[in-house]
Write a structure and sequence with these properties.
With 804 residues, the chain is α/β, with parallel strands linked by helices. It is 39% helix and 22% strand.
Length: 804
Amino acid sequence: MKILKFGGKSLSNGEGLQKVVSIITDKVNNGEKIAVVVSARGNATDTLEEILNVAAKNGDYKPLLEKFKTYQISDYAAIDFSEEFNVLDKLYEGVSLIGDYSNKIKDQILSKGEILAAKLLTSILKEKGVNARFADSRDFLKTDSKFGDAQPLEQLSKKNVIQYFKEHGGDLVNIVTGFIGSNNNNDTTTLGRNGSNYTASLLANYLNAEELQNFTHVDGIYTANPDLVRDAKKIEHLSFNEANELANFGATILHAKTIIPLLEKNIPLRILNTFNHENQGTLITSDSTKEGIKTLSVLENVSLVNLEGRGLLGKTGVDARIFRVMGDNDISVSIISQGSSERGIGLVVDADKATTAMIELEKEFENDFYSKDVNRISVTDDVSVISIIGQDLSTFHKPYTALIKNKIVPILFNNTVTGKNVSLVVKKSELNRALNVIHGEIFGVSKKINIAVFGHGLVGGTLIDQILASATAIEKRKGIKLNVFAIANSKKVLFNKNGVGTDWKNSLQSEGVAYTMKDVIAYANDNHFENLIAVDNTASKDFVENYIPLAESSFDLISSNKVANTLSYGFYKELRKILEENQKNYLYETNVGAGLPLIDTIKLLHLSGENITKIKGVFSGTLSYLFNKFSAVDEPFSAVLQEAIESGFTEPDPREDLCGNDVGRKLLILARELDLQNEFEEVAIENLIPAHLRDGNVADFLTKLKEFDPIYNKIKADQKPNHVLRYIGELSGDLQHDKGVLEVKLVSVPSDTALGGLKGSDSFFEIYTESYGDRPIVIQGAGAGSAVTARGVFGDILRLSDKG
């Protein structure tokens, strides 16, 4: 025989009830021998209790009761529930008159949910031709008289169950009321919440069932609650020990007491989905499964009771006093954590018992307050417990580090004696994000990186397209899922929690909304996003003001915008202080050499203690092209400049390139990587624009390009033989002091040198060090272009994604 148990959601009106009937009839038609245990339908138990509380306060409970009755009858008006409804009418009326009720009365009322469910299902099955029989568990399941949480009398109940099924067996399908029993006086008792599972487990034990099939509204047990963790995976097989740990740590799909009767007889338990009953669900047996983390379980309705007292250090009996208080007041402690340097004890208890616990502990330790041995007893509400079932302490640093990286600091944690389960107490507001962070870290699913991109011009737009084009391959190859959840310009932002699509430009135009940075941060928080990255592809000085609030809100930063690194040295240091305090990263490899690994190389050399003595090179791809071409051809400077403008190599106003400020900013960024404290004003910049052309509008300037020719033709002609012109930045001086010498200038170099042989729009850098002497480290390559820069930013994203 198999025992089938159906939960409240499975028995709800509509699809649920139809599915249950279909499952039972299919099994009967296939010749399977079964017995069925039912819970109250839908939210019947909660509704009955709600009506009870209204009646006890002399409230108008009757409309609620009528609504309850209507739901129970629904499309089955021919079924006679008059006996149950009359009992409820009388009990509620009595409670309303007295203004109170006992647990005995409450059990009588709550029991009606299961009775109504079993009677209704029996009637429907009979109509379908199934030989079904209503089985009131109060007739055979005998308990003690602890109303509300009664314990079965094992031997008597077992004898009664065997006798009952012997008399009512054969081809009968008994539809048994879960959750309820009766004491020796035949008073109705209940087995506590989730007691229907316990009923089914006891029947399976007493009848030596082949299997207990627990039908719920999910496909089985998951690595985490799929309602909270989208990437949760179904577990195919668990052992009873693992299932028991799950039950102890709050997995609502299992009741802790359910496991023991099954374990005694080695009866498999299968968790199945009523609404997808072709699925094989999760099988729980006595066979041990492979070691490792199985699942994350959550306790939500809890509070943390804290007892602090330096004077208790070394005193014996403190723990005994605490637990005596808990026991005397029927308060269960799910977690205890102790600190010894300043005696502190944290107890996790049910939220509705926390105030009682605090008050009773204050009474117990009253004299210790006077003697100053106890400083404080307090309650922290709005907390949740995450238990990692199967977590070994030797690898716990991985999920813990991931939490810290995402600015989630557990209030306390502890582990079981076996060292195979770890529980964390976190703020309730951080629960969802903490679950997703831990789950992503330990279950081998793709690590999700949530990205907000600000600025979608040439570089930003190219970057977004690069991410979308490469995302699938990166997830497959690296186990990293890149999710661009926000794209913004200066006016509007496009949000999509599941990631923007390839039509993001049109979507931004049609669905974009006005925003402030607080809106972006709030959106990330509301969706419990982990591993946040903000990418600044603007050229805006104003946008840099957002860096600090972003870092403080758990965003790592990536920027192709050079402004933040070239503002005052005070801001430069303040930003890094905030980043360090919040354990956030800031990457900006493209600030100087586009996609070239320049900044990383200099950082590594400097970090290793290498004494860098000089850095020089061609920092601008635009000016590299301009002077490479001008030096190689017999054309006036204005013609080469005009060609560069028409080819799109310059900014719309070419003076932004020709003034040298961009090169100066890049040079300053490298100086600061060496811990030099230079300001931008200290960079000596040779402006390539004749003084009389530096002001005025762009259109007017573009008509006067030939005025460059006399100046640059002469400079070119005055060079030594076999020399070429290059516009370079150079950092020199004693770089072991606070400041270096920063120069941006036009120089003439031999054409047979590495710098002289530069082609196209390549950037070129020479890094001179004490160890390498006169032989510099040379880095050369494409130093300009939206695709190259975007690829460099993309590289920073992947570099951050691989961290931690």
